[in-house]
Amino acid sequence: MxxxxxxxxxxxxxxxTTGPVNCYPEVLSAIGKPVLYDYDPSFLEHYQSxxxxxxxxxxxxxxPVILQGEPVLGLEAxxxxxxxxxxxxxxxxxxxxxxxxxxxxxxxxxxxxxxxVGYDQAIDPADVQAFLAAHLDTAVVAVCHHxxxxxxxxxxxxxxxxxxxxxxxxxxxxxSSWAGMEIDIEGIGADLLITGPxxxxxxxxxxxxxxxxDRAWAKLEANPKAPRASILSILDWKTAWKASEGFPFTxxxxxxxxxxxxxxxxxxxxxxxxWARHALTARAMRAGVKAMGLTLWATDEAIAxxxxxxxxxxxxxxxxxLRNRMKQDYGVVISSGRAETFNALVRIGxxxxxxxxxxxxxxxxxxxxxxxxxxxxxxxxxxxxxxANRVIQG
Amino acid sequence: MxxxxxxxxxxxxxxxTTGPVNCYPEVLSAIGKPVLYDYDPSFLEHYQSxxxxxxxxxxxxxxPVILQGEPVLGLEAxxxxxxxxxxxxxxxxxxxxxxxxxxxxxxxxxxxxxxxVGYDQAIDPADVQAFLAAHLDTAVVAVCHHxxxxxxxxxxxxxxxxxxxxxxxxxxxxxSSWAGMEIDIEGIGADLLITGPxxxxxxxxxxxxxxxxDRAWAKLEANPKAPRASILSILDWKTAWKASEGFPFTxxxxxxxxxxxxxxxxxxxxxxxxWARHALTARAMRAGVKAMGLTLWATDEAIAxxxxxxxxxxxxxxxxxLRNRMKQDYGVVISSGRAETFNALVRIGxxxxxxxxxxxxxxxxxxxxxxxxxxxxxxxxxxxxxxANRVIQG
Amino acid sequence: MxxxxxxxxxxxxxxxTTGPVNCYPEVLSAIGKPVLYDYDPSFLEHYQSxxxxxxxxxxxxxxPVILQGEPVLGLEAxxxxxxxxxxxxxxxxxxxxxxxxxxxxxxxxxxxxxxxVGYDQAIDPADVQAFLAAHLDTAVVAVCHHxxxxxxxxxxxxxxxxxxxxxxxxxxxxxSSWAGMEIDIEGIGADLLITGPxxxxxxxxxxxxxxxxDRAWAKLEANPKAPRASILSILDWKTAWKASEGFPFTxxxxxxxxxxxxxxxxxxxxxxxxWARHALTARAMRAGVKAMGLTLWATDEAIAxxxxxxxxxxxxxxxxxLRNRMKQDYGVVISSGRAETFNALVRIGxxxxxxxxxxxxxxxxxxxxxxxxxxxxxxxxxxxxxxANRVIQG
Amino acid sequence: MxxxxxxxxxxxxxxxTTGPVNCYPEVLSAIGKPVLYDYDPSFLEHYQSxxxxxxxxxxxxxxPVILQGEPVLGLEAxxxxxxxxxxxxxxxxxxxxxxxxxxxxxxxxxxxxxxxVGYDQAIDPADVQAFLAAHLDTAVVAVCHHxxxxxxxxxxxxxxxxxxxxxxxxxxxxxSSWAGMEIDIEGIGADLLITGPxxxxxxxxxxxxxxxxDRAWAKLEANPKAPRASILSILDWKTAWKASEGFPFTxxxxxxxxxxxxxxxxxxxxxxxxWARHALTARAMRAGVKAMGLTLWATDEAIAxxxxxxxxxxxxxxxxxLRNRMKQDYGVVISSGRAETFNALVRIGxxxxxxxxxxxxxxxxxxxxxxxxxxxxxxxxxxxxxxANRVIQG
Lengths: 394, 394, 394, 394
Fold this sequence. Notes:
Four copies of one chain form a homotetramer. Chain A is an alpha/beta fold. Chain A folds into two domains: 14-18 and 271-392, Aspartate Aminotransferase, domain 1 (Alpha-Beta Complex), CATH 3.90.1150; 25-267, Aspartate Aminotransferase, domain 2 (3-Layer(aba) Sandwich). In chain A, 41% of the residues lie in helices and 15% in strands. Chain A contains twelve helices and 15 strands. Chain A has helices at 25-30, 41-58, 71-82, 96-108, 125-134, 156-166, 214-222, 253-269, 271-291, 319-330, 357-375, 381-392; strands at 14-15, 65-67, 88-93, 111-116, 138-144, 146-147, 152-153, 169-173, 192-195, 208-212, 295-296, 308-312, 332-333, 335-336, 345-349. In chain A, strand 14 (335-336) and strand 15 form a beta hairpin. Chain A is globular, with a radius of gyration of 21 Å. Mean pLDDT of chain A is 96; it is low at 1-6. Chains A, B, C, D: GO terms for molecular function: alanine-glyoxylate transaminase activity; L-serine-pyruvate transaminase activity; pyridoxamine-pyruvate transaminase activity. Chains A, B, C, D: Its EC number is 2.6.1.30. Chains A, B, C, D: Pfam families: Aminotran_5. Chains A, B, C, D: Substrate binds at residue 347. Chains A, B, C, D: Belongs to the class-V pyridoxal-phosphate-dependent aminotransferase family.
């Protein structure tokens, strides 16, 4: 062990977390641009161009909305905006974030239901179908696409199709999946999808990105309880994208500059290429994890997210000691679990600038090396890296 | 006129607004630092050190709170947190922002009152005294220190003394005055003061800074309606400054790095020196405005803020044409009025990096030059600049 | 006077010098990009694209050369490369830089001649004509376009025509004029022109830019004394622009990134627009200088450079005291004279990011204010600024 | 293989070269600071403080000199300055750079000698001793400490002792070793040592750093051929470090700002800690190389530099194909050999920001993976990484 090397107090050399992730160099250059007055006509034009670029990146026909706070703001705002008094609401729970969203939905709903599965599993669309058939007046369904504390995906395309056929409005939390994998937002019928620039787009955390269908806008406008003149209001920002309109309050200028650079990077690299390297990195990581004799958290590898690999902690391994050791000996910082998954798993993010397969090699070495050092039973790091490399060499 | 020179579409050369202001170079360098994971021990330590530095800059004995949105979030959160059901609330209105704050307070209050003066005047402390004597059960008083759309100050020291003696809690909006002039936060008895880094501290807009007295914390904790598990919650962030605690949600890492640099600059230059150059710049500006034959907005120059000079628009001068002309011919962007003061005045900010007296010269030239060009009646720019220079040369 | 305001030890608020100038914001963003290995294929491609962009900005048909040191390197290298043993060389001297160049040329030449005029005057093309007619074997003529320590221009178009007709090779020092005014490099017959990014292109000082005619290349290749395998070699870099070739030694990667951004800015704003604002700024400055009762250094205003205004120091005004006072009271830094012009004049640069007319106002105020404060005899700053403004309002 | 992943045309993800290396984040932040006028008193003070900091980092009692070009300038300047007409000069050659230096020394020397060993070996101090005993009038000895194209070290302490005892002046090229390992500059008797910020200090390439003993200064001053008034002059810069003196020409302001940040990083991390991680990284790398069945270039591992690992290319492996494949499949860029070592070896730098042991893992994977893919005979990457990890876990 090397005391002199990397005290846990030093900044990470490699931030391989599920967010905040470090940023693309282009983004770090752009965020330091001079800060313009929000009503400077050139900033008004700039803001409009960023929203148009964002619309293109999202692949939607309506105008997206940027809220001035990290995605937790978008999620809270979505619940307050879309759930009207008396609404019957179905929340789908396959993890900590899905469960947490219920805490916001429940007090707003007239009737509140949940479908729950184990946190290492995914929602079964058939259960949604059955619920909706039994509750025809369901107004809103909420689903978390990638429940980050579990690293698992829900089948939003299938769920979306069912909800769309039924006529309820669908809220999708796609914070940590969007821009790391393909999401056909309108195709799956997402009425209000929340994401952010601070995961797979490689920007800092400070903004929410929301897409709304025409039905979602209509619901918001009709909802007397939808926040207005508030930080929680989506409605206030509906026309803010137009250079001819003002802002309800000052947008986060530097973060908008960062988002602009993140979008340029995403579009110029092409979304398809970005998704491909997220998928490749995750495949290399999972192959290595298994080859080292460790176990993925997801009971079915098919639901493991391309943007995050959750690894089940072996009996007796303390996650804090493990992550401290990884930082101290290797300079690598990864994410812990949250709530029910805390101390049950650790997570390696594959997001934006870290979605390159060599980062999987790096994570495998640090994970295996630190775990072996902690337990005194060395893991076969070599097997792990070799397996990852076979995926890389395809 | 020079078409080729500076189309209104080009970014401003000189952003002399009342916020967002451009940032200090130190801040623009710092905001592009690598973004760390919020639970990286080195970020936890960093966050704690920033809050401690902030406490020092604020000159208070309690720990300040950073909320993750520009000061409008802090203002909304303060109202929701400090006003409990049934509270009698007094709101002091000497401008657009004071009036706007009443819109948030009113629905939260049991009984709601306002003292109003003209938007070019300041609240008379005697009126506050009289009101409180007549309404002994008043629980909360709110005052805007610098009502930015008017460029005018309220006498918060005197008001604070009265409120403190009475026992009500005092909310102070010091967003655009703090760090540009001395505010003895605890001395004046501010229980919940809201400010931000995006004005006189020369940072970008994306964070709120709040100071709370022990009484304010007690009120929040006792208030069943105070937001919890919400972007609007102050309580959620009470212990977030401790490196040993977590965050309720991801802080805006890049903006924290920027704030850190802004605080370093403020403290190393010394607050006294910073306040002195704000005051000097404003004095130079006001001398020049008067020498050019224009009129200050404030009826009494003593209430004109050192952080902003509001100039009454002469009859027949359209503010949009004027500001466009200033940008086109001089590359200078200043602020318009808001609501009732829109098209009645224009405002030049003296905040942080623009609080140097030569910026007053620059603003005078652009203001006088553009107005003369628009009206066909040249102003005596020379007299304005000479008057400003006499102030500079003291 | 304000001690607390701006100690001379603090960095300048406004660097209005003749170089180094502060940089465009785009340049400061770009210089902090990750530093690539010079043989990384993506850097090789990048370098080629920068040289091609530079060729476009220069408006020439041959490939320019970048040397890895500020323009003094280019100037020294040009002398060593173009002057062969035995060459008859004519050096034209209208200022300190022209005279200094002779120090390099003289020991390299077979026969060395100079035409000299007062340092506030320009070379008369007729004198060049007469000299060449009398010395038919003259091989090289050297001229400084903008002799920066005097702020004066030589008529290079006329001189170039004469030299071209004669058949000698022409060296042109255009370090501080290029990119601030039109120079038809091939039209005037410049065989080896030296400039740099650190003046009117708004980049930092660290690179030389050279253009060579085919005749210049032929001379270099034939010259046995032309430096090879040396920092002073131009030949070493002849093919370095090609992505398929290597570099003789490591180029200054960060500075190349900065140059790239400076060129983007220049080309996107359009050279014509850039030249126009340099000219306008200089006209405003000169009008103000005269209106304040000061005297231009150039005996004939027609030879005053659009990139620099040299102001004759009144009797008894010490330039160091004056410039210190300007910095202390106004935060403005300007350039002193050099050698023979030291303490005889001061110079305000209009270069790149400072070539906007409001900077003239700022310089006039600081110059006039400081001089008045020093001498106890206030200058009419008002008249100066008003005159400048009349030019701005055109 | 992944076409979509990392075209060779994209910038490297991981620049693991022997220089230019990518920079520390602190350096990339600092290089974008506003560019000050070199004669701004605050820059003069800053320059002095940087040279004093540099002196501390170098651990010397004389004042170091910064030359304004990457270290090749310092090397050329040293030869021209220290070799006087008629001098007997001994050049020690154990690699391409040592041999190249002879090309500069030879034409300057009265008598010129070389001691040569194979490029995978080190100079034997006994041979130096023998030479000097046989040539008592030897005036100058030159040695390359780390001959980068071979990744090998010469025993400069032993050589220095011998040269010092003899009385000749010793030139040491420590460009790619200094700041990555301990060098007792005065202890070993280096009279003129050349290094730079662009290797182990983690700054961009654009400056040379020179240390001179009093004897070296005396020699320069006495040498009529030592360059003066030239980019090649060391003498011109002798007093430039003093804030009270001027500069012979404009220093590279942005690069000085970068150097300042690199020195801060080096001194605050402590040189000992920096050297330790360079050594650890190289040890991990060498262990992995051998475990994968590859061969180090150095015939004796004891002479392998801690700042670079040179790996012998197996028969039939083309270095260009190999390095392209490493970039394409892994995003990793390493250095090729030069001249005689080209296509005989490849080199992985361990310098500054890449001198952390996980970078060795990363390099091993990319090197082994690409070589296996190219040859069709997979290397045992697992064994390589495991061996590296055993070193890391020490």
